Amino acid sequence: MESKEGKSGGNRLAKPLKDIRMSDVLAGVKEDHIFGYSSNEPNPSCPVGRGINKALDTLFTSIDDTVSRELGKITLASFLQKNF
Asked: What DSSP string runs through 37-71?
């Protein structure tokens, strides 16, 4: 994506649709894991709570990698052609 400020500004894609993968789109909008953690802090005295975020981080990283790999198989051009 290229952006230009000002009166004649705006956004445009920096490469053709056939060269943009859906995984590129995800990477452009994703801030962290696809799934999020609870807003509550786990209790460090709890045998489950003290290790849950580390366990979830491993799981979420695996999920993120799988989703990104699958989205990497789809171009924006093919997605648009198939769905619109």
From this structure: --SSPPPTTSTTHHHHHHHHHHHHHHHHHHHHHHH
CA distance 62 to 71: 14
Do 10 and 3 form a contact (C-beta atoms < 8 A)?
yes
Please give the model's pTM, rounded to 2 decimal places: 0.75
Contacts of 57 (CB under 8 A, 6+ apart): 33
Residue-wise pLDDT tens digits, 46-78: 999 999 999 999 999 999 999 999 999 999 999
Helix, strand, or coil (residue 16) = coil
pLDDT at 38 over 90: no
